[in-house]
Amino acid sequence: MTKIIKSMHNLSNLAGYSNFHLIISIDDFRYNILQAQSINDLFTQAELSVFSPEKSMKSLAGRYLIKKSLFDLLSIEPKYTGIELLNNALGKPEMTFSAELQRILDQKNIRSVSCSMSHSRNHATGMVAVSYHVISPSCRTIIWYIEDGIGHLILNQPPTNKMNKVFFDELKGLYQELIKSTELKAIIISGKGRHFSSGADLDEMLQRIMTDYKHHKQPGFLLNNSAIFNFFEDMEIPVIAAIRGVCIGSALELALSCHYRFCEEGALLALPESTFNLMPGCGGTQLLTRLAGFSKAVEIILEGRNISPEEALSLGIIDKITPRKQVVQIATNFAKEITEKKDRDFSKTKLYCN
Amino acid sequence: MNPTHPYIIFDKIDDIGIVTLHLPPQNFIPVPDFIDDKELHAWITKNQFKGIIIQGAGRHFSAGADLKNLFDLARDEKQLISRMNKGKDLLEYISNLKIPVIAAIKGSCFGGGLEIALACHIRVCTENALFAFPEVNLNLMPGLAATVRLPQLTGFSNATSMILTGDITDAGTALKIKLVDHISGDKDISLYALKLLKKMTDHHLLEVIHSIMTSLHNSRKLPYKEALAEETNLFCKLAITEAKKNYDEDHKIHA
Q: Is B203 on the interface with A (CB under 8 A)?
């Protein structure tokens, strides 16, 4: 049983633990797993270890790859921080490493970007294992990190955070390789910058459909996209969409697939597909009917008009309106509040609700 | 316009079909199967309508069933059952239409009249509209599926009190319990309904409207996951058409 306890932010708290695991992703979610007795040993071992799946790259390649992983982990300019971090990390006592990492995180005002950490307690031997998940460096369109047991999934293609092929592929990978197998209390989905997302990349999508069509293939990727949103709906922990700015088309469908929707003042919701001779394709017609009722769904989807947060709240489409720039914080507090009680079994609640 | 049912007027404005129950002042509904569904179907298909409005002539939508006719029918049980079922089939046909149907309600909308309105997809009414199921006062009950459709709209408790008390519900309350979707300050409720339908359908291809309505209907009929898969299928058909159109246009430019 693996349980999330801390974020990278609190790495120094791990100094007392032994038996560490480091999981480093190389590309497309291939992982190398290393084990060590102390965090310092782990990183020394990591540097000397062979990192490629082909087991052909020796220490130089290994050094490069761990640096690269850490750069991505910190999501900042690699030149300075990554090297400094590594130089300070390797060959020093574990407390120094933790403190150094903490210092850099603080200095850059970073709160555990793209990193999650879990520990599991082996009752048979009393050993504590700590494992790191370093998200694939190839995950460009999404930021994923865990803080206090709550997973934060941020659409990361500002300003529009459009949902293109890369995004859907990465979201699927992230879910299947990481989110599904991590024990979390809740998930909060939001967009980087001023908007949640402007939805699917229409031109790209039509091009892909045409390519599939010319090869006499059914555009299977659309079913795939729909299924990805469905993952979140089927999760047995609360999933909250924290919406600010624009949230239209597929983006609203993603939000509707969540269990709660919190909206900032001035946000803009819509399913405008019908206005360009299409229709919602990732659950919109089903999910809106459930929340707002058949009549309102007919009207909103056929008109394709914009819905203000106030109207959305009165129709039951969203659950709360928050002041500007506070939606993620309020959603986080809410998630903490409803998951406060330990051992609360959400799977049962979900079962009864359905 | 309507040979077998002279009290029903079929009319049209652009792409919108308008069905008027023309028995003023009360617009009592003479028989359960008040429109011939085959004629209705032929009319809608021929005209390629994008939406339908159902309304009553004069000051009221409809005050309900014509009881004298109903009791006449009730003398023969088999005949009554068969006519009631035909009436239900008609409302079910309207409810399943793949184009939006709006009930434009003014004045009284009681009993069978309200059951017709419930079969529509959207209900709009004037500020002075009144709603009730008075059947219980006559030791009867709603017979055209209101006991099934009303709880879906208003929730079980509101539906129970409305049908068991037979009390009149005003427009404001009706909006609150989601029995109606819009109240218009304007007296001309048909115009309001027409504007709403135009907004919903004006710039859309009929195929798009059909696909969306089909998927919305699926939400009430199919298991959730099946409905989701079907939605994507419908989307793909539209998207392929659209992608082809874009492709052809590009080629025209380059040719």
A: yes
